[in-house]
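Batch job 17 of 40 flagged for manual review because the log was empty.
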Amino acid sequence: MTVITQAPPNGTPTWVDLGIPDHRRAMEFYGAVFGWEFGEEGPPETGNYTMCLVQGKPVAALMKNSDPDATDFWWNMYFATDDCDGAAKRITDAGGQIPMAPMDVMEQGRMAIAVDPAGGQFGLWEARVHIGAQVVNEPGAMVWNELVTAKADAARDFYTAVFDFTLEPMAGFDYTVLHRPDQRPIGGIQGEPSAPKSAWLTYFDVADADATLQRATAAGATVTLPAQDTPFGRMAGLRDPFGAEFRIIESAQQS
């Protein structure tokens, strides 16, 4: 099991959470899909923020959406930063927006919500007590994140300016791998001219993509991308009962 014991370097996707109308229904769904267990529910003022656990360690969180009129829901991905306020300034300097300014989350850390110039939303997380996901690259845990956007050029310029990423174009289609300054790949940007909006998609690792797909649809998911083999593993796209999209991948090294 790949266990994280300290906050990861700047620019690493470190956490994902989801705000939906019925977090207990979401717990039932994601528990069925990934076998997640759940920590103690937070108080109402936190939206009953609840940790999703793999072998007792947090990998994500679910909460009740604070907007009773909301109709659009998504997994929000947070990049690690050791200076939330400084990162927020780099974001606005590079043409992004900060709809939620840096704020302390009790003793857990400091966060902000940002939107890139292409329209993709993401978060910033400056870790204190909560270091982010404590398990990654294992079944039930986050393994990859990619921005799907019709404005790939603008996105590439923005993320290199904000996080000092270097770019690795892939041959044959509009896909760019993002590398941290230490050259570790941390995610990608997929250029998709027909994308109705820009959005970060999180991939969760699974032991068996087809079995997971079957469990997910039985629990109320909609398939957005049928299971297919790729050089990186067998993957599929899903939309949960609330409309939040995510992807699963049975990594090639498991096969």
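Reviewer: the log was empty due to a logging misconfiguration, but the result itself is present. The chain has a mean pLDDT of 96. Unflagging and moving on to job 18.
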